[in-house]
Amino acid sequence: MRRTLITVAWGLTILLLLGVGLSCAVLVVSNMDDGRALIERLTARLSAGHVQLSGLGGSFPAAINIKQLRLSDEDGIWLTAEHVSLRWSPLALLERQVRIDSLQLTRLHIERRPVASPGPQESSNTTMPRIDVDAFSIDALELGATLAGTPTSLSVRGNAHARSLQEGMATVVAHRTNGVGDYELQIQFTPEQINATLRLQEPASGPLENLLHLPGLGRLSVMATLSGPRTAERIRLSLDAGALRGRAEGVINLIQLSADLDYTLEAPAVAPRAHLAWQHVAIQGNWHGTVTAPSADVRLQIQELRLDHGMQVASLSANLKANGGALSIHSTLEGLTIPGPVSRLLHDAPLTIDASMRLDEATRPLELAAVHRLFVLARTQAARSYSAHSSGANARQCALIWMPALRCTAGQQYGSARSVTVHACRSRRR
Predict the structure, then answer these.
(1) Which residues, listed in sequence order, are joined to residue 174 by a DSSP beta bridge?
(2) Confidence band (pLDDT; 50, 70, 90) for 122?
(3) What is the DSSP letter of 121?
(4) Are 141 and 172 in contact (CB under 8 A)?
(5) Choice between 411 and 287, residue whose per-residue pLDDT is larger
(6) How many CA atoms, within 13 angstroms, populate the side-chain half-sphere of residue 350?
(7) Residues 175-186: tens digit of each pLDDT
(8) Distances, alpha carbon 203 to alpha carbons 158, 200, 208, 239, 242, in Å
(9) Whether residue 56 has pLDDT greater than 60
(10) Of residues 169 and 149, more confidently modeled
(11) Which of 140, 143, 129 is closest to 96 using CA atoms?
(12) How many CA atoms lie within 13 Å of 96's alpha carbon, on the beta-carbon side?
């Protein structure tokens, strides 16, 4: 037994010496010109050419300088970084820490978003290491026209520290250098509280319009603060985008998922998407209580709403009310134009839609009714099925509207409904 232990001890000692020798060899080679050139070639080869390094220098591994770094995908190069300087503590990795003293880039050019590629699913039980970035800076962050609409250049600086997903702090400040624009984020969070401040200022046609896919957003100004314990976070939001005005203020409980919140939004003619536009939108509401038992009142008004496939609504009004676990919505659509051969069939009379749901029940039982001069479509909780009734001279045309929709939903489950019943009355022949 003793001889076996001695043999194992000598074996471990030899492996340790080999590991130390190999590490020393790597350090020596990495600090020689030929060794750095080898690392550059191996990086390109192991990444199938998607990661390319050139001008590797510094004192490896604690002080690394890279003259140029390029990232590419199947569509070509999408990111270029120049004169990268990294000062960090590699030995901290043994303690599950990423400790960076400074990270500096003279130029970082991002032409577009990378092509998404399927990757392995991350394990849900993985834990992140502690991350400390004392300082990082980018002298020129360049966003290409494909990404930001117009070529944009910014200077960026900040720091970040994270012990876990529940505790950390970060500061990021960016200033546009080829135009007007200031962006600042400060956040500090612990398991007990969150304090955060967000400030944005940019003119019309700024980079955020294209990054957020909201063309015509207009001059943007955002001021948002979050402060206090997680059980009573005080939130204030002020949003101005062109003529759009949004305000929100109140207290939210992140532990119990409850809130006491008042908010308003008013927007003039805007077309945020190719197939979404309106002439005027107004929202005013409040929310008090938990998600399952709220007390809420929300009023919505939309004028000249235009949707995909030529669908239009001249006027839409809706009122949402919640009391305890009961939620109800009453809405009226006027001047409704729908896709299809009878697009104006519902145009001359209002369509009212009423819905109610119990939020405090696990099955979320739903009752739904849509009423028009030509038909009635209802889903009752007792019958747990949908029924549609239409009559009058336009019964056949009316069936063209709701019959395809019912066929699509007949095989699906909405709440506990699994069946669809349709009743139609033909008009008399003349």
Answers:
(1) 156, 183
(2) low
(3) P
(4) no
(5) 287
(6) 11
(7) 999 989 999 999
(8) 23, 10, 10, 14, 9
(9) yes
(10) 169
(11) 129
(12) 8
List the beta strands (DSSP E) in 190-293. 194-202, 220-227, 233-241, 244-253, 258-267, 270-273, 276-278, 280-290
SS (H, E, C) 256-283: CCEEEEEEEEEECCEEEECCEEECEEEE
Tell me the CA distances in angstroms from 428 to 286, 332, 389, 399, one per residue in order. 50, 30, 16, 16
Return d(Cα 214, Cα 210) in angstroms, integer.
Answer: 6
How many Å apart are CA 347 and CA 66, to the nearest integer? 65
d(CA 174, CA 159): 12
Helices 33-46, 2-30: crossing angle, 10 deg rounding: 100
310-to-65, 275, 284, 344, 347 alpha-carbon distances in Å: 56, 9, 28, 11, 13
Closest to 406 in 3D by CA, of 390, 427, 424, 422: 422
Interatomic CA distance for residues 240 and 223, integer angstroms: 9
Here the tokens at position 399 are 């069936």
**Position of tokens 């957003």?**
217
Q: Could you give the angle at the alpha carbon of 384 between the alpha carbons of 381 and 387, nearest 5°? A: 100
- C-alpha 111/C-alpha 284 separation (Å) is 40
The confidence band for 342, taking pLDDT boundaries of 50, 70 and 90, is confident
Length of the chain in residues, anyone? 430
pLDDT in tens, 230-258: 999 999 999 999 888 999 999 999 999 99
- pLDDT-above-90 percentage for the chain: 45
Q: Are 102 and 87 in contact (CB under 8 A)?
A: yes
Buried b (16+ CB within 10 A) or exposed e, 70-104: bebeeeeebbbbbbbbbbbeeeeeeeeebbbeebb
Is residue 172 scored above 60 in pLDDT? yes
Pairing label, strands 385-390, 419-424? parallel
Give the pLDDT band (50/70/90) at residue 389: low
Q: How far is CA 302 from CA 22, 315, 344, in A?
A: 70, 6, 19
pLDDT over threshold 50, residue 190:
yes
* Dist. CA 233–CA 246, nearest whole Å: 20
Q: Is the pLDDT of residue 14 over 50?
A: no
